[in-house]
Design brief:
It is a single chain. 72% of the residues lie in helices and 1% in strands. By secondary structure, the protein is mainly alpha-helical. It is globular and about 105 Å long. The N and C termini lie far apart (96 Å).
């Protein structure tokens, strides 16, 4: 009976991991709200049970409560909640991050309670095997699903990134997976590759389990290569070297030999299907048409043959070890690995080698992001500006025109959101969690380190799936027994800390309850917004749905802008101005307020709002052009209405906007983006200058 319940729990975990990956990696908060509420409510029952056990002083020697380190994740959520009271850059961004971290806490506590809370070593190890199966199963879904998209077997939006820019892809296509981001998919594939290798080396289970892990190695290598993510390649290689240093004796030999075979078979699979993605992805940049041609029958057959041969090779290697061939294998271990590396290099098409020898412009772009992030960080160095600080404010400090809604470093984003204090607290929580892994099973840090290292140079931490997967490995690898004598002794000295533990549980329950309420409200708001989109043909139904959504989530600027577009002019200004309470430096809100003022022929209001919007986002070429053109048109309208003072102000404002715009044109862009003055703005500025000259006699 208990084994069946554990199996159901493992199935639920696999569904959560696979589902979070499938829903774009849970990058978008409106999709994550419902999942957050479910995770939090499940955890509430667990915390409630722990609280009841502590209140009645029950014997906890058979079942342990989650360690305080897991509740430390809740401290990060509370830091984002505290940010709400000191004018954050975005109220919604801070709310969203607080809800995310509460959900991560709930997931970690739930995993520990289901799979690692038993004091019986045999029971705990049995449950951890189920957790391993859940991680493997969800990984197979993510990795094989990505390969299926590359081969054209399934259709999924942007599962392949196609580009003609050789700086971004050597082949012309990069595998993005369900997360729609090649670099993050590469990090996930690299982490799973090391996870599978560890299962092969240290697994003492049946042959069927060995075959299952062996079958996952080549798909992981293939996906890692197809992403063309140099950062993922590098951190995976570094973690692999870490494994070489941590392993000893027979395990090190096996590590080398299995890795060599993985390189050869993975390289062969890559060469067989490398060009299939160009026939399976989007028809072109910006196109929504999906090409269904996909892989050829020859490519499909080769991939299947390699997929069967690779596990067979691992089985043969295992058989050789079981037959006492360790001495032979130890002599050839390094040779096998070098042969595997050489074989993979030879199998790779020459075009992919360009990704290793050049095209490092994206690294230069990241350097510019980090430089601008430092400028932003200095404005609030200790406590930050709350959630979404970079996304809301980076245009105010950017030193060149670029597209950079993500800062491309999870740790820098922490520092921007929560300041150095928050970064140190988050680092301390992470350190305590990883120390548990190090004490129990140091080799378990290998797949975890791939994720942690890659997040330093990319925005992986913005994906909910990233944290759910990482915490799954933390719970799995920290579940090794510490020794029954020490554990019983720790339980006997626990009573003096019972009150503190109870207070912690009460605080956690209160935080979880509040987060559950907000996540449900925000999810309902997202549903109402979807209803508004579906009711696009009925303005009344659309307006009613958006009003309901705004009532449930008044912090969501997107809903406010959409509702304002349907409202009457007087109400529109009120709606938009109210949004500045939650995002005081929101360029979209300021711009919409300027448009509303211009529609009402309010020259002063339009000039003030647009001046502020352009000050906050001076490299937006479209807005710069629209501001100049609209103010020039407004000047003509004011002259026609004999409002000459307003006409003069509008013309002067148009010229001032244009001169500020023109001053930016010589600043070089990055990532191929150029910033140039448009012909429309030039013509509008000339028109305004002419109008001012015509108004001069009137003013004298």
């Amino acid at each position: 009976m208990r084994s069946g319940l554990t199996g159901l729990a493992a199935l639920a975990v696999a569904i959560v991991l696979a589902g979070s990956a499938y829903h774009y990696g849970m990058f978008f908060d409106p999709i994550f709200y419902r999942w957050e509420s479910i995770l939090i409510v499940v955890c509430l029952f667990i915390v409630g049970a722990d609280l009841a056990a502590h209140s009645r002083k029950a014997d906890t020697r058979l079942r342990k409560s989650a360690p305080a380190a897991f509740y430390g994740l809740l401290a990060i959520a509370l830091l984002y909640a505290v940010a709400l009271i000191h004018r954050p850059a975005s109220m919604l961004g801070s709310f969203d991050e607080a809800l995310r971290w509460t959900a991560y806490t709930a997931f970690a506590i739930t995993l520990y309670s289901w799979f690692s809370s038993s004091s019986d070593t045999a029971v705990r190890q049995h449950r951890l095997m189920w957790l391993s199966a859940a991680i493997q199963g969800s990984g197979a879904f993510v990795i094989l699903g990505a390969i299926a998209g590359w081969m054209g077997w399934i259709a999924f939006p942007e599962i392949i990134m196609t580009t003609g820019d050789a700086r971004l892809s050597a082949v012309g296509a990069r595998l993005s997976g369900f997360m729609q981001y090649p670099n993050f998919l590469g990090a996930v594939a690299g982490a799973y590759l090391l996870f599978y290798l560890l299962l092969l080396i240290r697994g003492k289970a049946a042959v069927s389990s060995f075959i299952g892990a062996a079958a996952g190695v080549v798909p992981a290598v293939l996906v890692l290569l197809l992403t063309e993510s140099r950062g993922a390649w590098l951190v995976t290689a570094l973690a692999w070297v870490g494994g070489l240093l941590l392993l000893r004796g027979k395990e090190r030999i096996t590590w080398l030999i299995y890795s060599g075979w993985a390189l050869i078979s993975g390289g062969a699979a890559y060469r067989a299907v490398v060009h299939a993605g160009l026939r399976s992805g989007d028809a072109g940049v910006g196109s929504s048409k999906f090409v269904q041609e996909g892989a050829t029958s020859q490519e499909t057959l080769l991939l299947i043959l390699i997929g069967v041969a690779a596990p067979a090779g691992f089985i043969v290697l295992r058989w050789m070890q079981a037959r006492g061939r360790e001495q032979l294998l130890s002599r050839i271990a390094w040779g096998c690995w070098l042969a595997g590396l050489f074989g993979m290099v030879m199998l790779l098409p020459s075009v992919i080698q360009g990704r290793l020898s050049g095209g490092f412009q994206t690294a230069g772009a990241r350097g510019l992001f980090y430089k601008d992030a430092w400028l932003l960080m200095k404005e609030a160095p200790f406590f930050g500006r709350g959630g979404d600080t970079w996304r809301m404010l980076f245009t105010q400090v950017q030193t060149a025109p670029y597209v950079g809604n993500e800062v491309h470093s999870g740790y820098i984003e922490f520092a921007l959101d929560l300041g150095l204090i928050g970064l140190l607290i988050a680092a301390a929580v992470l350190f305590v969690l990883l120390r548990g892994v190090w004490r129990s099973n140091p080799i378990g840090l290998l797949p975890i380190s791939v994720l942690l290292l890659h997040a330093a140079v990319d925005f992986d931490m913005s994906f909910g799936y990233y944290w759910l997967l990482l915490l799954s490995w933390v719970v799995y690898y920290s579940g090794e027994p510490m020794g029954e004598v020490k554990r019983k002794r720790a339980i006997r000295v626990a009573p003096p800390l019972r009150q503190l533990r109870t207070a912690l549980l009460v605080a956690a329950a209160a935080s979880l309850t509040a987060a559950a309420v907000f996540s449900v409200r925000f999810d309902r708001a997202a549903q109402y917004r979807e209803a508004a989109v579906s009711a696009a043909r009925s303005a009344a139904a659309q307006t009613a749905a958006l009003r309901a959504a705004l009532g449930l989530n008044p912090y969501w600027t997107r809903i406010r802008l959409e509702l304002a577009a349907l409202a009457s002019p007087p109400e529109r200004a009120v709606l938009l101005a109210a949004g500045l309470r939650y995002e005081p430096q929101s360029v979209p809100l300021l711009w919409a307020l300027g448009e509303a003022a211009a529609e009402q022929s309010d020259v002063h209001g339009a000039a003030a709002y647009w001046r502020l919007a352009l000050h906050y986002d001076r490299y937006d070429r479209d807005k710069q052009t629209d501001a100049v053109v609209t103010m020039a048109q407004l000047a003509d309208g004011m002259r026609a209405a004999s409002r000459l003072a307003d006409a003069r102000l509008a013309a002067q404002t148009a010229i001032a906007f244009f001169e500020a715009y023109e001053a930016q044109k010589n600043n070089p862009g990055v990532n191929g983006r150029k910033f140039a003055v448009t012909a429309e703005s030039q013509a509008a500025a000339d028109q305004s200058r002419l109008l001012l000259k015509q108004l001069e006699p009137t003013s004298s």
